[in-house]
Amino acid sequence: MSSARALVELESVVLLRDGERVLGELDWVAREGERWVVLGPNGSGKTSLVSLAGAQTFPSLGRARVLGEELGKTDMRALRRRIGWVSGALLRSLRPRFTAHEVVMMGRHGALEPWWHEYDDGDRARAHALLAAAGHAAIAERPLSVLSEGERQQVMLARALMQAPDFLILDEPFAGLDLGARERLVTRLDALAHDPTAPPFVLVTHHVEEIPRGVSHAILLEKGRAIAQGAIDDVLGGDAPSRAFGLPLDVRREGERGRWRASARA
Ligand SMILES: Nc1ncnc2c1ncn2[C@@H]1O[C@H](COP(=O)(O)OP(=O)(O)OP(=O)(O)O)[C@@H](O)[C@H]1O
Ligand SMILES: [Mg+2]
Fold this sequence. Notes:
By secondary structure, this protein is α/β, with parallel strands linked by helices. The chain has nine helices and twelve strands. Strand 4 (61-66) and strand 5 form a beta hairpin. The site of magnesium ion has 2 residues, from helix 1.
């Protein structure tokens, strides 16, 4: 058993929506130093799981602790400020006329409007540096409305990093990206995974090809339950992916620590 600090601890958790069990019963622990991918079919509970991890909701049954705080017994808003989010829902909540630089800088306080807080030159410089680190210094003054989908996801990631979160949650950041944008984002996440000063992350995705090399752990959901979880090679290397997706799959990685690929078994 690892002694690293637990970021998320779910114990016999059940999440009910409209009287239906959408998640659970589930146990899951994600620790400092681990990078997780959450996989599973549509509707299997991935977004519900990261909503708990991000302190956006609390369990109907069982216990959930995030950064050591028990959900339902703590100030959820204070806890949320310690967690960086990249999701389509958050992107849609931002005004399209804000520039990339404004969107990133507002991430310092998780704000949706620039006038909610004051920003100094240090904040402005850090926002520029984060855009530059993503390879997107040139788009700083462009409004969100004109950015490509790939550029928007990089802006949202830079914004999430701006608040110096304890960890990051990315819910389907690759949705709608072309091959080039996808690869640039995988490369950026891979760089974060190998940077000891960068926060750990939990990544929700549909495609194993989108898993950066630095991801160490995987949880595979089916109908709200974890059918496998743990070290990524054990989870993806076993028969759990075939069981979760309901057809025989060939899932393998390129070389010992390479990228993953999946296809139906011939
Ligand atoms: N607020 C809600 N009210 C009713 N049902 C809900 C609610 N939130 C989620 N659900 C249901 O819970 C199930 C799991 O949803 P969730 O969004 O977690 O799945 P997902 O794995 O993220 O799916 P996708 O891959 O399509 O994003 C779905 O059947 C969904 O309809
Ligand atoms: Mg989802």
